[in-house]
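Hey, quick one: can you model this chain's 3D structure?
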Amino acid sequence: MRLRKLDELMVKRGGSIDPSKFKDEVFELLSIPAFDNGSPDYLTGSDIKSSKKVVEPRDVLLSKIVPHIRRCWVVPERNDKRQIASGEWIQFRSDEFHHDYLRLFLVSDRFHSQFMKTVKGVGGSLLRASPAQVAEILIPFPPLNDQIRIARLLGKVEGLIAQRKEQLQQLDDLLKSVFLDMFGDPVRNEKGWKIGSLRSYGSFKNGLNFGKGESGVTVRYLGVGNFKSKAAFDDFDSLGFIELNELPAADYFLHDGDLLFVRSNGNRELVGRCMAVYPGAARATYSGFCIRYRITDFSLRAIYVAHLFRSVAFRRVLFQGGQGANIQNINQQILSDLPIPIPGEGLQDQFAAIVEKVEALKSRCRQSLTDLEALYAALSQQAFEGALDLSRVALPAAHTKGESPVAAAVTAPITTPVIELPETDLLLPALQNRKQLAPLLRFWLEAYRTQLAGAIFSVERFIEAAQTRLGELHPHNDFELHASDYEHVKAWVFEALDSGFLKQERNQVYCVIETKETVLGNLVELKASQT
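Sure thing. Here's the predicted structure for all 531 residues.
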């Protein structure tokens, strides 16, 4: 495969503009913060304080500032606004390179390793890549149609990776919603739970401090870096080891159901994070930047506490430290003084059961994400080495100007049948007594399931159909489904998964590589079992 220097694609004299001279004009600004927010900013010239690059549709912009690396943006089609970009972008333009192919190369591992060698300090701790050195990096130059095929293939996998990440976020949001539905706001405590304190239900212990020069004994070690966004951790085989002169005391080792809090970290977002741990038979200790909480009164459940500390409102109280002053670190006293709502044990157990099922879905989704990321890395490496067999990758159909041929090829239409919910004697009791709503919803859910065929089960579409049906059958009744009614639907979904009436359907990702093999993914989509 031919190689070309990026210098040939760089825009060196694309022009600049001082928007402040056009105070009332609205500009479309592509900045690094706008990239992180997912769309350009629209600002009047009076709100833009410095000169900007002039850019054109399908220009490719690469961030040169560290740590904002691996940010690459294709300038969208022009609307009625002038398009400008901040000076932290390196700008590329070429009729010989497809814009999506170029973007994918600029975020590839192959390019990134070379890009980081061009990074240097520019006053103080600020680091930027040198455009002059980036210009010397070579880019593979296949025929334009092959560039489009590569972009289409990698774009499909990239789209699936984005779906998995979105699904994981949706599952996290589901648990937050379930927590609020079941327990209410933990600060307002509108459900009137008994208020207690952690000191009444268990004990605290700060983590292990050790010296770098110690040796003689090896111990598994859980640090702040293992928290990430987890509410629970059981993968102790993945932990690293530390060297100590001697074994720590027994109470430095973690037990199943212990809770760990991050007490101190340079990143304030990590401080106060809470995670339940389940080491099983593994012997593991924990960082001195953590506090371990061990429950001794088991009317308080670890999973409930872990999710309590994920509440935005509760974290706000935590960081006020009870004194109204913002704090940077936490300690045992602050944790002990927090007012903790204590729901009934049965309700905590119901929540734990829901968490277990959702975490199982998240585990499958994470595995699918890992597989897709590995697939993407392999395909990307082969593509930019010229080792990818593109003979069976079709070019996208003709598209209108401004439409991305890669994006247009990613999604296929999904059949969504009309939901027909039958009349039933269960309806009138439900309208008269809300406690009788569960049998009605379960009856309609079963009817919906039998109509699915190969379509995806959608909670949102079912609720919408149920509300519509209620209005049709009893137009003079203003009965409305509430957010709390989702609990009946969720319970039915989990039972249907357990019984096999609903299943996780694996999708097919046709990625033509040298082996011509079909790659399967794991979409978190519910479908009716065809039995």
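One thing worth noting: The longest strand covers residues 217-222.
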